[in-house]
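Fresh eyes needed here. Kindly weigh in on this sequence plus structure tokens:
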Amino acid sequence: MATTSLHPKSLSPFLTNPALFPSPHHFPKLSFLHPHSTTKRPNLLHTQAKNKNKKKNPWLDFFNYDDDPDMEYGSLFVDGKQEEDPRPPDNPDNPYGFLKFPAGYSVEIASLALKIRGDVRRCCCVVSGGVYENLLFFPTIQLIKDRYPGVQVDVVTSARGKQTYELNKNVRWANVYDPDDHFPEPAVYTDMVGLLKSRYYDMVLSTKLAGLGHAAFLFMTTARDRVSYVYPNVNAAGAGLLLSETFTPDSLNLSEGGYNMYHQMLDWLGRPFRSVPRQSVPPLRVSISRKLKEVVEAKYKNASVEKGRYVVIHGIESDSKASMQSRGDTDSLLPIQVWAEIAEAIRGFRPLFVIPHEKVREDVEEIVGNDASIVFITTPGQLAALINDSAGVIATNTAAIQLANAREKPSIALFCSEEKGKLFVPNAEKKSCVIVSSSTGKLLDIDIEAVKRSIQIFDVSLALA
């Protein structure tokens, strides 16, 4: 009986038949399979931005070909800045509120430009640091208010940083949560995630250097735009997958950038967009309530000084957190012996020593004398009100210098180096600020005679007034 031969040649007609397999040209060309061969359309938005060569993250959206160059813009819904919130106001007579629906439940009253133009109705800012860092974040908040009319800005920061926002009328809510705590309590962590998620933010900004952990925290807020600084080293691995936009600082300490420490975020927020020109960065300004002024007025009158007839001295050496130092300049406090020598040169005004803790009062009375004018101030709001009623400020690199510039008061700033002075107080001449720096790099070796010669700036300001 003959047997059938099962050679490999018997399968060749099936495998070599070209009609059974479609041409490879019939398959769609997937961008994630051929990342280098995919032709991308030009991005109109990024051509206007300053950082043109920044590489987009292909993992965020495989099929994102950016803006269509053939699309014609200019209609009512996509041109210009956003309008004020068109929703009716809350009904105060209704115990359940009025039209307070979560995102997606009231689409009929949402503007069409919410997605097309990228409107921002609610923005949350997670600010790392203390009083000094939060104070320098004020121009960023004002830029957000100018760029997105009608936006509601909330802040999440540390307990000390929250005190700063009694000077900012643009912030709706300020919540205490320390983003710099690497091991937060699980209950606190989950509670804050749920709180931010329930507010339905359109954009979340963060000044903390993000790794994968902090990026996951921002991702769980479900905000449309998640923008943050990231570590400039390997610790940033994986963070870009969960963030919409990232900024890489020059060093691990963002505060070392001085007054313009948030320049990368400001440049991105103020970027031009179609018919909207680039938004200019506003100067640092603070608003002081009447209640704050009344409380502080009672304090300095109790210290036997009159309004406009005293000079604030701030930066006495202490271990208290109320010293309001910057993280970018740790050498920014002087012992009371140096301040006493500087205070002796003040003529026509009474020196008012600001102490961050009551235990420093005895040291000041012992060195300066029992008749010294001393006021106990721990919050930036009270310090701003005190500076507002003064003739000027003599301080080291603390929040007092920035508050004096914000209230346009003459000041003398003492720095450990000339480089630090230029970083933290740019354009000092325009701000009526005299910078006196140490030649050795140590604040303790500062030239006392140079400080005494600079005190005449208060006499000039009084004559102009």
Notes: The longest strand covers residues 203-210. The CA atoms of residues 60 and 284 lie 35 Å apart. The two ends are 124 Å apart (CA to CA). The mean pLDDT is 84.
